[in-house]
Every structure is written in C-alpha cells, then in structure tokens.
Amino acid sequence: MSSVPAKFLLPMAHAFDIAVTTWGALGAGVLSGKYKKGQPHPKGNRLTEVGSWGANVLSDRNLTIAEVVQGIASDLGKTPSQIAIAWVLAQRARANIVPILGARRLEQVNDNLAGLDVTLSPAHLAQLQEASRIQLGFPHDFLAEARWLVFGETFPLIDNHRA
To answer: Can you give the CATH number for the domain in which 45 is found?
Structure first.
C-alpha cells in the first residue's frame, strides 16, 4: 500500500477506521535538515553511497520540500525533524496516523518526540501542502486544459455528482 498516494489512502483508511502507519516520516533523513540544495551532501551514508537509491531520494523536488520544512522550523524555533513529524501528525483529521520514528542516537529520539508537541498553523500546513503537491502530468494536465475538445460547449451542463 505504500505506493498508493495519500490522497486515496487516507480517505479510505478514515472511512474504514483503519490506522495508517507511516514509514519514513523524515524522508530517509532528507527532512531532518542534514541535506541542503547546493551544498555537498554528507559522505559515507546510505543516501550518498555509489549505486545507492539515494539519488532518487535526494532529488531536486525532495530538497525543495526540505527547504520549506527548514524555513518553517526556523520560523517556529524548532528543528526540521520536529516540523516533519508535526506535519505527519497534522494529517490525523484525514485518518488515524501512527508515524514510525527511526533514530540512531538518544538525542534524535528526544528531538523526534518533541515533534509531538508542535502545532502547525494553517498557513504553515498550506506551505507544506503546496511544496509537496504531486504533479499529475500527462494525461491529466492535458485533459484539464483541453476539456473543450472532449465536451465542447456542454461541460457546464454536466451535473457534478460530488457537489
């Protein structure tokens, strides 16, 4: 189920009263603040080893999301890890979410647990949502812009069954 987008998973989990256990709330460390755009990445770890899957994790998109997390952490005087964990917990209105926290040192455990006491403002949540929004791409984007090709002038006449 990990490949199912949260957009679909969380409403389903909420509807069936199923808890969702999130794996990688810190994005393999990317959201912890130790990786930054335009700076050399720490060597000798699982994300920077030759042939590792880290190149996919350390993508421009993920580092951009991490920048937003770091900015909010700076605004609130918290660590990026605490903001990332608070962000996951803020999704609880959509489903019962239990984040898995992974740490190698006691300081990391304590820092992660402090994220339980962080409350993000609606403005901060909107920033995080915008930064992490999935780009749907083709054919969605094409069809959304070319709706007139399919429906002509009749689209406004179609009832919205979700309204």
So the answer is: 3.20.20.100
Cα–Cα distance, 9 to 4 (Å, whole number): 6
What pLDDT digit, counting tens, does each position of 43-75 carry?
766 676 656 667 778 888 889 999 999 999 999
pTM of the model: 0.74
Mean pLDDT taken over the chain:
83
- Which string of b and e fits 62-97 if b means at least 16 CB within 10 Å? bbebbebbbebbeebebbbbbbbbbbbbbbeeebeb
Residue 161 belongs to a domain: no
Structural domain boundaries enclosing 88: 6-135
Q: What's the number of domains the chain is made of? A: 1
Residue 150 within any structural domain of the chain: no
